[in-house]
Design brief:
With 107 residues, the protein is mainly beta. The protein has one helix and eight strands; from the N terminus they run H-E-E-E-E-E-E-E-E. The N and C termini lie far apart (64 Å).
Length: 107
């Protein structure tokens, strides 16, 4: 068993070195009302921004109402519709983020 101890230690050390690089980050989006607009800040759980990504607005029948790209601040702004809606930020990995109109508050 003592012969294999250095190999086990080396294996554990190697796993420890590479475990931090494989950590996943997931998309985030928070939205708020600003007078006649809806604004959403997008990004990732590691603190990085999501510039030039689509954020889609749908009605409750799943019809696309509007599609906006995030700006250089990672913010997407929409005109506030009369009907109920939900917003989707799909960054292309992990699960898309959905925010329903009932979750949105004034800023």
């Amino acid at each position: 068993m003592k012969k294999h101890l250095p190999i086990i230690k080396l294996s554990l050390l190697t796993l420890g070195l590479f475990s931090g690089t494989a950590q996943a980050h997931f998309p985030l989006m928070s939205c708020w009302f600003e007078s006649d607009k809806v604004a959403c800040k997008t990004g990732y759980s590691d603190g990085s921004t999501a510039v030039d990504y689509n954020v889609n607005m749908y009605d409750y029948d799943d019809n696309l109402i509007a599609k906006v790209n995030t700006d250089k601040r990672s913010i997407a702004e929409f005109s506030k519709p009369e009907a109920d809606f939900y917003l989707v930020f799909d960054s292309g990995h992990e699960s898309p983020v959905e925010v329903d109109v009932v979750e949105i508050k004034d800023k």
